[in-house]
Write a structure and sequence with these properties.
CATH topology of the largest domain: Aspartate Aminotransferase, domain 2
Number of helices: 13
CATH superfamily of the largest domain: Type I PLP-dependent aspartate aminotransferase-like (Major domain)
Shape: globular
Strand content: 5-15%
CATH architecture of the largest domain: 3-Layer(aba) Sandwich
Number of domains: 2
Helix content: 25-40%
Radius of gyration: 21 Å
Largest sheet: 7 strands, mixed
Order of helices and strands: HHEHHEHEHEHEHEEEHHHEHEEEH
Length: 379
């Protein structure tokens, strides 16, 4: 049975953000929640703990050990669970903690728009200054732009990398990441890599962890099993330091490692240990949905441009051909389908939409039908 096959009437009984923010007549394809049942192994370990009354404080390194085992098998990346990995809260709280440990108020931090909106929030919210180096028109890292920014008058102290990139789904190559680390290390800039989408990669595609490339031993990673196994309701994450960045772990704010819960750690550990084939199957279905979205748009709404990319279950879609002032608002108010507006990822992307494809194929088709009908109503 397909993982992404839950009927809408069942999904609408959920009370999470995705299913309660908009009215029931709106098809929600915005926030990054997946339309899957909970991984059985993760569900069982949580229920078992609840039955035992095992609902206290987290202990031990099982989550770190499970991640290290996965990294070794999947990416041939060898990590020490005890000396390189620390338990933490969700990824953005982890990034905030790393910024606190490696930068000071007023320091500049580089980001690559269009980018996940909390990147801006965590930088400015903690009194740091944002330096933008946009992705290229092809959606790749602008290495020349990074070199200029790193050496520029703002003198940035940190660089927030999103790998794979959200919202574009770009997977950075080993050559790109090696160049990033060479530039950053030359200017004593701390690379902080958000790798929460690292297991959400199309079949046959190679994902490269920043810690695996030359120079990557100076990087620090924030990650979690929450995204790949749809466990956002169980907040837990990991901060992972390269072999030459372990001092960052010692400099983390005192409460940085106290923000995850025992049940969350149990669920994430179970996902990493017993859910690898599950997420492999998930990405087969997501890849099919990417192809379906591309074909449906080409057939029914060719003014909208979409080129599938191999990372994440998110589609980054150019709606500028429709000549609408605010296409995402139009689709929501007229078509009754909700996407994430491109303007929240970059001011220059008002005409873009991020679409969540972790859903049944029928939902993808229905979304395009609603989009097309809403545009036809204008003619």
């Amino acid at each position: 049975m397909a993982l992404l096959s839950l009927p809408l009437d069942e999904l609408r009984r959920r009370t999470s953000l995705k299913w309660r923010f908009y009215s029931e007549d709106v098809l929600p394809m915005w926030v990054a929640e997946m339309d899957t049942a909970m991984l059985p192994a993760a569900q069982e370990v949580v229920i078992d703990a609840c039955r035992r009354g095992d609902t206290g404080y987290p202990f031990g390194t099982a989550y770190a050990e499970a991640f290290a085992e996965m990294a070794s098998v999947r990416w041939q990346l060898e990590l020490s669970p005890r000396s390189q990995i620390r338990r933490a809260g969700d990824v953005m709280n982890s990034i905030a903690a790393i910024l606190e440990a490696t930068t000071n108020a007023g320091d500049a931090v580089v980001i690559n728009p269009p980018i996940y909106p909390p990147f801006r929030q965590v930088v400015s919210g903690y009194g740091r200054e944002i330096v933008e180096v946009p992705l290229t028109a092809a959606g790749r890292l602008d290495l020349d732009g990074l070199a200029e920014a790193f050496a520029g008058p703002a003198a940035p102290r940190a660089y927030l990398l999103c790998s794979p990139h959200n919202p574009t789904g770009t997977i950075h190559t080993a050559a790109e990441l090696t160049a990033v680390m060479e530039l950053a290390n030359a200017h004593s800039i701390q690379v902080i890599s958000d790798e929460i989408h690292s297991r959400l990669v199309d079949p046959g595609e190679d994902y490269v962890p920043i810690l695996s490339v030359p120079g990557g031993e100076r990087a620090v990673v924030a990650t979690s099993a929450g995204k790949a196994w749809n466990l956002a309701g169980f907040k837990a994450g990991l901060i992972i330091a390269g072999t030459q960045a372990r001092e960052v772990l010692d400099a983390l704010p005192p409460m940085a490692q106290q923000s995850s819960g025992h049940l969350a750690n149990l669920a994430h550990t179970a996902a990493l240990r017993y859910g690898q084939e599950w997420v492999d199957q998930l990405m087969v279905e997501v890849m099919d949905n990417k192809k379906l979205l591309a074909s449906e748009l080409a057939a029914k709404l060719p003014q909208v441009r979409y080129q599938p990319t191999p990372g994440t279950y998110l589609a980054w879609v150019d709606c500028s051909g429709l000549d609408l002032p605010d296409p995402v608002r139009h689709f929501r108010e007229v078509g009754r389908v909700a996407f994430s507006p491109g303007s929240t990822f970059a001011g220059s992307h008002q005409q873009w939409a991020r679409i969540n494809l972790a859903c049944a194929p029928e939902v993808v088709s229905e979304a395009v039908d609603r989009m097309a009908a809403s545009v036809n109503d204008l003619e």
